[in-house]
Specification:
This protein has helices at 2-11, 29-32, 55-70, 101-113, 156-169, 182-186, 215-228; strands at 16-20, 23-27, 36-43, 46-53, 78-82, 86-91, 96-99, 119-120, 123-126, 142-150, 172-174, 179-181, 197-202, 205-210, 232-234, 272-274, 281-288, 291-298, 304-312, 322-326, 334-338, 344-353, 359-369, 375-379. By secondary structure, the chain is of the alpha+beta class. The strands form nine sheets. Strands 10-18-17-11 form a four-stranded antiparallel sheet. Strands 2-1-8 form a three-stranded mixed sheet. Strands 12-16-15 form a three-stranded antiparallel sheet. A hairpin with a 2-residue loop joins strand 13 (197-202) and strand 14 (205-210). The longest helix is centred in the first third of the chain and has 16 residues, at 55-70. It is elongated.
Length: 381
Amino acid sequence: LAGPEATVREALSQPVRVLFEDQAWRIEPETLSGYLTVAATLDSGQPTADLQVDTARLAADLRTQFTEPINREPVDARIGWSDANGLVALDPSQTGVALVADDFAAAVAGSFLAGHEPVDIPVLVTRPEIDAENLDALGIDTRLGRGDSNYAGGSGPRDTNIQVGVNLLNGTLVRPGAEFSFNEAIGPIGETPGWVEASVVIAERVGTGKGGGVCQVSTTVFRAALLAGLPITEWNPHTYRIQGYEADGWGPGFDASILQSGSNPDNWGDIRFENWTDGWLLVEAWTSYPNVIVNIYGTDNGNTVEIGGQSQSDPITNNEDVEVPTSELAAGVVRQTEWPMAGLEVGFTRVITDRDANEVANREFYTKFEGRGNVYEVGTG
């Protein structure tokens, strides 16, 4: 048995080194000897020994030891748009890997019994969905629409919430055939850090709430989606006219409110649109005081968008004053919280035509803004 003995002594003489990317480990011979099996056999009438490694048991133990340091999920690239270069990766993507334990055990066994060559750990590689090395696969090649809105003259807390909303929205991607949701893009306002209390319209009254002012961002998204020719699947105009939304040439009715009220997101007011193109959509948002700007990039399908048929009623002025009892003020104290504003009925039509001048969509957007008189808080405390 001198031959098998020499093989065993050689196998036990040094560890097996295993490598993955920039990491390395040693599997000591004393560990591997526990998986070694020696079977006495006859070879042409002469006794010998058949040396093997129990790779099934070794694979199970290697899986336990190496899954955590090796396995990882793929990481999408963070992408943006450059007017000079088109779609660019702002942060790189990373491939996902998963340990292939059976192949790993076979390679370690082979190295242990024959030569102790280093072993590259075998893995299954998966590419990320947003792959920095293959951005062309997203099909984003042009700007489809640009929306803007003016937020000059607002309060500091409102400006803060606008910036938070813009930062959360920026870089949102929409798969082909999928639906964009503003609420999903920014997440639950109550759970995301950065939001502050600011003025907000709730239940037809002006008050304060965390995230007040975020509708400046949703309004800008609505305008970008309108001009990009994307189907608007959910839209909720504001109860009252907000003068700032009518700046810079935008007439009344080009606004979109959102409301995260209650614990069930299915019941929240949202602005949604559908990606009916063959490629992905990229939603970019930023502020350049006093403007919020939202660009939507995607695949150029040759469609054109025309906004027309704008209509506006006479002002609705017969609005009664309102008194709101509150225990927060002492009895007899009166505080004015809102001032009169005329109501208005407005509308416009968006027509979308394809590259052959065929009409593919025609929709009217109608809003009835409620009027209001003076609103007073009357103390009952």
